[in-house]
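Posting for a labmate who doesn't have an account.
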Amino acid sequence: MPGGPRVGLRRLPEYEVWKSMRQRCLNVRNRDYPDYGGRGISVSAEWSDFLVFYQDMGPRPDGYLLDRRNNDEGYSKANCRWVTALESVKNRRPITHCKRKGHALTPENTKLHANGFRQCLTCWRAYHRDWMRQKHGHVPKVTK
């Protein structure tokens, strides 16, 4: 069964994880391709078969995500594991530029939320200013 799983296996949540992993790495039209396949992140040849992926990784624990131990290496049995969302956030590549506008992110213009999400304050302030203008016709002055 090269490439595709047997019909019943497509219903497994691990199948969706496997399919998404392959899309990020192999499909140039996937929105995440630049951060994965575009960076040279690949999927091991063995994992082109879903059954091998499933045998290597086992069932996904409820609420867990597929994670690469080393973010500069591809998806393989030796480099992957199931982790909680919090563990996954701790293992991310550092974000150095705003995805929205492309400017550099620094400690002064970012806010790190408890869930690990980093918010660009430059873009947030611009959005907030535009929203205030639309709502009030001007940006109200802040009084202390």
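Reply:
Got it, the structure tokens are right above this. The chain has two domains: 1-92, 94-144.
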